[in-house]
Amino acid sequence: MKILVIQQKMIGDVLTSSILFEALREKYPNAQLDYLINSHTFPVVENNPFITNFIHFSPEVEKSKRKLFKLAKSIKKNKYDVVIDVYSKLSSNIITLFSGAKTKISYHKSYTTFVYTHNIKRLTSTSNPAGLAIVNRLQLLEPLGIDIENIKPKIYITQQEKETSKAFLKSYNIDFKKPLFMISVLGSGENKTYPFHHMAKVIDLIVSQTQGQILFNYIPKQEPEAKAIFDLCKTNTQNHIYFNVYGKSLRDFLAITTHCNALIGNEGGAVNMAKALNIKTFTIFSPWIDKDTWSVFEDDSNNVSVHLKDYKPDLYANKTEKEMKPQAMSLYQEFNPDFFEKQLISFLKHIY
Fold first, then answer.
1. Sorted alphabetically, which InterPro entries does this protein's record hold (predicted)?
2. What does the pLDDT look like over 302-323, one tens digit per residue?
3. What is the pTM of this model?
């Protein structure tokens, strides 16, 4: 048995879809289970014991139709029995169509039903605490006779990585007897980033409540934006921020995060990764992102999330979150951190 799972694009998507492999491995212990992903997302699934091989969808392939068809032809040579296309966009439609697999599974779209043998309709609501992102992915396994309620994504960090990151933090005088918080200060784009002055107030509150140590999650090219948030924080807060202590690579970030008491900040890949590392999270959703889909494994204790819709539901009357996307920046300004101050304080008390 050979099975290919396709999930391109974002880190959070690739991590979330990796749950399929644990279920597939239980059903087919001796199968070849391969994962087609974008190259930059590999670190979140590295060392996953349930995956046999990785196929990298490189930036070059993404930019060239010729290279895309070449990749599709090479995949056909692997003679997969099953292709599960979680991504379900043009490039993955083409790869699936060329694969020659007898069983081809994806989400239902009227214009691509001819490509797949099984077209699964997404649920729009669920009572499952795993959240829609998990539930809808697990639905893709039903044509294979796999019926499982939920599986939590996991990231596999080696002991050596943990020890190296701990030594790195000690070299910057991080005190492991005191609370240590990773702050997701920036989202993947402007309309997914909590306004800087609001974020500074959140960080001020964390420090005033815990006297904890603060790390910022950012990459070098984002340093000016991260520094702008730092400058907006109170002087006392700044004394608790280790601004120059950050992971130089995604695996470094993951290893450092394993030593944190919690990750707090913008919804996105960092939050999903923290959850997969069993690190507690407090998530601030962008006003246009659907909380029901991405608030996975929320329990109002270890994993808490807040959304403007929670406090001002009238703004969303007869509209979906995605329909509010053009107004994201103005809605963000209304999303005052005072709305969720008590929830954040309660979360922090649970941590320390």
1. Glyco_trans_9 (IPR002201), LPS_LOS_Heptosyltrfase (IPR051199)
2. 999 999 999 999 999 888 888 9
3. 0.90
* Spatial distance between the Cα atoms of 287 and 295, rounded to a whole number of angstroms: 13
CATH classification of 159-351 is 3.40.50.2000, yes or no? yes
SS3 percent helix, strand, coil of the chain, rounded to 5, is 45, 15, 40
Q: Do the Cβ atoms of 313 and 52 come closer than 8 Å?
A: no
Residues forming a β-bridge with 350: none
Residue 120 phi/psi, 5-degree rounding, is -95, 130
Residue 34 and residue 26: Cα distance in Å, rounded?
15
Task: Return the bridge partners of 295, or none.
Answer: none
Please report the sign of the dihedral spanned by the C-alpha atoms of residue 129, residue 134, residue 135, residue 136: positive
Which pLDDT band holds residue 126 (cuts at 50, 70, 90)? confident
The pLDDT score that the predictor gives to residue 128 is: 87
Q: Between 3.40.50.2000, 3.40.50.620, 3.90.550.10, 3.30.980.10, what CATH number should domain 2-144 receive?
A: 3.40.50.2000
**What are the backbone dihedrals phi and psi of residue 56, each rounded to the nearest 5 degrees, phi first?**
-95, 125
**What ranges do the domains of the chain cover?**
2-144, 159-351
Would 2-144 and 159-351 be classified into the same CATH topology?
yes
Can you name the residues that pair with 37 across neighbouring β-strands? 56
How does pLDDT run across 152-163, given as a tens digit for each residue?
A: 999 999 999 999
pLDDT at res. 352 = 72
Contact of 133 with 16, CB cutoff 8 Å: yes
